[in-house]
Amino acid sequence: MKGSFFVVFMISLSIGAVLTAFILEKIGHVRKLYSGKAIVFLWAFATSVFLWYAVAFPYIALHSFTGDTQLVGIVSLSVVLGLFLAAPPVGVLGMVFFFRAWRKPKGEKIGDVAGVSRREFVTRAAFAVPIVTMGAAAFCNVQGSRHLALTRHTLYFPDLPDYLNGYRIAQISDPHMGLFFRPQQLGEAMELAAYAGADRLEITGDLIDELSLLRPCRDILQEKGKLFRDGMDFCYGNHEYYRNVEKITAMLRTTGIRILKNTSYCVSAGGGVGLHDRGGNDPRSFYIGAVDFSFAKGKRFAAERRQFMERTLQSVRQEAFFILLAHHPAFIREAFAAQIPLTLCGHTHGGQIAPLAPMIRAGIFPYLRGLYSNHTSYAYVNRGTGDWLPVRILCSREVSVFELRKGKRPS
Fold this sequence. Notes:
Layout: H1 4-31, H2 36-63, H3 67-102, H4 116-146, E1 148-157, E2 168-172, H5 183-195, E3 200-203, H6 214-224, E4 232-235, H7 238-243, H8 245-252, E5 258-260, E6 263-268, E7 286-290, H9 299-313, E8 321-326, H10 331-337, E9 342-345, H11 357-363, E10 370-374, E11 377-381, E12 397-406
Parallel strand pairs: 1-12, 2-3, 3-4, 4-5, 7-8, 8-9, 9-11
Antiparallel strand pairs: 2-12, 6-7, 10-11
Helix pairs in contact: 1-2, 1-3, 1-4, 2-3, 3-4, 5-6, 6-8
Pfam family, one: Metallophos
Domain Calcineurin-like phosphoesterase: 168-350
GO molecular function: hydrolase activity
């Protein structure tokens, strides 16, 4: 079920955790302060946790998926991640400890009074580090999995058709339904969007990671989709292709959601026709479209983005008000160039760790999170309604709601 990147990631965490356990075992053996059995337990735990994520979980989820299952995942991830993060500082402290032990005067024992205080400090610091890092990892994981923000945005368009004045659109992106995002949480996110008065819901990819949850995902979409009187739209993310795009598509087709892939459709031919309780005199039409996810690299990536955009826009009338769905925020460049009024993206999860945002913007995602504008065009990058790993620092999950208003943007 898991992609190769995820398995490699978990193995890397396990190797770091084992390294931390190994150094602590050596220090503990010299100082006679640590139980060998505890080290063996940590070693075995760290090297086997990734099997829980990569192999065991899909079968557990198929039969029973509860908050307890999610809690086990968070706790186990916190332990392994905490030990992994502890490896560098523990390694430095280990080198200091063994260097001082090697440099001790002849006849002096490790436990002698002379010179003991510094080694004792290094020893205690070494054992304190993983406790701190595991606690920090647990706090970030719990916060990341529990807190879901509702962000509201009022967007002004001088040429907005009169029947769309006050129209509300909600966005859910990157739920990654699986170990760290339960089907019930998708329902809660949809209820939150409906509570904010959204007329329609847009899901911008990466909906589900565990195919064993396809059925409960379908049930949630069928039940909660009724909350949005003008329906739901969906565009593909990269994880749909990683998992099984055929099976996910087949599930979505049973929910009433409209699947868009390098195409657009006319929501209203004008005057609010086709929308619930919407009327007006403006004859201009309203379209929604979506581009597919591009896996191209380098110059081919830009070329394929342009191709996808051309195919998506080819049936859209020039005077129409248009909303674009694009999982990857790189499409914002093309959207601004085409003067598309509103583009909704995801994929980045907002970086998840706010202090790293400047580096991520500079090296990977110039459009990382939040609202961007270019003249009369807007683009929004959702921070992610879920995540495939719940590590978040000052970057909560979100459901975003946009209210369209006719007029000039406030200065």
